[in-house]
Amino acid sequence: MAAAHQDSHVSTVRPRSYQDESYLHGFLGTVGDLQKDGALQDVVLEVEGRRFPCHRLVLSAASPYFRAMFTSDMAESRQKTVVLQGLEMSALEEILSYIYSGTLHVSLDKVQPLYQAADLLQLDYVRDTCSSYMAMNVERSTCVDLYKFADVFSVDIVRKDCLQLIHKHFVEVASSEDFCSLSVNQLTEIISHDELDVKEETTVWEAVVRWVQHSREDRLHHLPSILPHIRFNLLTPYNMMTILDHPLAREDPGRSSIKNVVKEASNINMKRRVGMDTLEMALIFTERTKEMLWMNPGEGKYISCRYNIFPVVGTVTSDNDIYVLAKESSKKHALFKYHHIKNKWERKSSVRTIDTEDGPPYNYLMEVDGQLFYLIAASIVVLKKYNQHTNKWHNCSTPQHIRWMPWTVAVSCNQHIYFFTPREIHCYDPREDHWCKKTQSDYSEHSYHIDNAVAMGTEIFCTGRDLDKTWVYNTEADSWHELPGWQYTDQEIENTTLFVLQNKLHAVVDGWMGEGPESRRLKRVFVYDRSERVWRELSFLPKGRWCMYNPMFPVARMHLQYLNTQGAAGTNGV
Questions:
Q1: pTM of the model
Q2: 23 Cβ neighbours under 8 A, 6+ residues apart
Q3: Poorest-confidence range of 86-95, 160-169, 303-312, 559-568?
Q4: How far apart are CA 341 and CA 386, in angstroms?
Q5: Which residues have CB under 8 Å from 530's CB, separation 6+?
Q6: For residues 172 and 404, what is the distance between their CA atoms, to the nearest angstrom?
Q7: Which one has a higher pLDDT value, 249 or 349?
Q8: Between 144 and 467, whose confidence is greater?
Q9: What is the DSSP string of 318-348?
Q10: What is the chain's alpha carbon radius of gyration, rounded to the nearest angstrom?
Q11: Which of 130, 213, 403, 413 is the most buried (most CB within 10 A)?
């Protein structure tokens, strides 16, 4: 019985596995030390004449390519020196550094050969890291070069991002030197898309001409295969005749082939490009609803849409991206980005606001050099910068010794942020993360309160609530002058909001006309005539509780065909 009891007790004790974390981390460090010391190395990799002594075991453990090489009957498995073709020396050096240390260093000038090496050596982590790095660095200056690489190596995530940026900035991209280095297939893929942001189809033709003339003898024979991707049906008869009379058509080695292709293509009813139906419009929020109004008073365009967000403040970047901060809670705002083609807002991140005993803080969302900044002004001033790659906000330096004032305005201009109080003007330089004071104007000496400020070029236009004075600050000269011209006295003004539309200064004036029971509230739109130095009335805003307390109306080029998809009511979800 004792033996049986003992056997039963033993059977209930389960085996366990133990993992030595320090051994796992230390093992890689030890292997790295062996490589540095040149100990126990049994193979030499040679690339571009440079020799790299290594360990077969380590290479085989890290790379399926080397494992197959050293464990098969291949000749390399018996050689002391293995010559690798198709790799750059610097790329292999970085690959070996990663294999022996687990740390990978990536830079824009080395990422493409590094990806090629990782693709050959079947190093998934390195390849995926390079793909992500390229995707994060798709910009106007890099998009063509990265697109060519991604197209050859089928890096879909990078290829897609590059195409989107090329379409969005086609006019600028087509004038670059990189554009002329595209292959014929890459060129035709780009110009065949509906999303090409061009106002006229002649822009596409001119880009093709530039590409052909860059290497005329080698490329002229490709022209008949490229032309069907140009939408000749969208051209005016005059533009069509101009193209047919172009030297490329007249000097066509195939005689009439180009003219025939053009005439055939002009009879095909192809869609209009995205950029052909765009119009600059200003965005106005409402006070208590989720309605927004897109407007261009000069064109008589007013489109009202309803979205499932309650915006607090917004801005438009130089890339025509629209961002708003919407109230998420009493302590947080959510950042949303507008998707033009889907006509919806996409949530990006959250950012904390600040608590204040002096009433609601002033909120400003601005872009400087492609970077998004959120400035909160209350009893203290807080500045945050948004990193679109990490989707996080980071604190910046703030102006010192600012006493809270009931009137403050912030605006971005000439690659800086300018912050106005009734007594001081502060300027922030994002490159140095530094604030400094600027020249004060007569408005500050006479306690003239700036309620609005908007940038146009390198100048900032400032006005008070009743628009009786407009001051202009030249950021390059650090000087001020007054802008005359307001002559309307038939309206008691409560609020004024400035915005720049189609390179003209506009103002929406909110107030009362008439007296007593016959008085009525009106929101009128004015444009400033700089040649006559006067304000001219354009129209009235449509009825609605349009918010006049925002520092400015964001202005963007809107794609009308998508903005109008839900009709005038525009009930669109986020």
A1: 0.79
A2: none
A3: 559-568
A4: 24
A5: 505
A6: 44
A7: 349
A8: 144
A9: TT--EEEEEE-SSSEEEEEEEETTTTEEEEE
A10: 32
A11: 130
- Give the H or E element holding residue 247: helix 247-250
For the chain, how are helix, strand and coil distributed in percent, rounded to 5?
Answer: 35, 30, 35
- Same domain as 514, residue 411: yes
Phi, psi of 359 (to 5 degrees): 95, 180
Rounded to an integer, what distance in angstroms lies between the CA atom of residue 181 and that of residue 177? 7
Query: Does residue 476 form part of some domain?
Result: yes
**E strand segments, 41-145:** 43-47, 50-54, 81-83
The two structure tokens encoding residue 128 = 């995926």
Residue 30 within a domain: yes
Q: What's the mean pLDDT in 143-148?
A: 96
pLDDT for res 164: 93
141 Cβ neighbours under 8 A, 6+ residues apart = none
Name residue 130's amino acid.
C
Q: What percent of the chain has pLDDT over 90?
A: 41
pLDDT digits (tens, 9 = 90+) for 495-537: 888 999 999 999 998 888 877 777 788 888 999 998 888 889 9
**pLDDT recorded at residue 3:** 52
Residue type at 310 in one-letter notation: F
- Asked whether 252 and 244 are in contact (CB, 8 A), the reply is no
10 Å CB burial of residue 19 (0-12, 13-18, 19+) is: exposed
Tokens of 232: 């000749």
Q: Which two tokens stand for residue 389?
A: 């790659």
Q: Hunting for tokens 């005016």 — which residue is that?
A: 236
What is the pLDDT at residue 309?
87
> Token pair for residue 81?
């020196």
- Please indicate, yes or no, whether residues 210 and 290 belong to a single structural domain of this protein: no
Domain span at residue 401?
275-563
Contact 147, 153 (CB under 8 A): no
565 within 8 A of 549, measured Cβ to Cβ:
no
Q: What is the pLDDT of residues 227-253, one digit of tens each?
A: 889 998 898 888 888 888 888 877 665
- Tell me the two tokens of residue 381: 């001033």
Query: Which residue is it, tokens 């964001």?
Result: 554
Tell whether 96 and 231 lie within a shared domain: no
- Is residue 570 very low, low, confident or very high in pLDDT (cuts 50, 70, 90)? very low
Q: Which residue has the tokens 């990193």?
A: 387
Question: For residues 64 and 76, which has the higher predicted lDDT (pLDDT)?
Answer: 64
Domain count, the chain: 3
Cα angle 307, 325, 309 (rounded to 5 degrees) comes to: 20
| Residues present in the chain in total | 574
Residue 125 lies in a domain: yes
Kindly report the CATH number assigned to the domain that includes residue 327. Answer: 2.120.10.80
What the block records as the tokens of 349 is 């991140």
Judged by DSSP in three states, 390 sits in coil
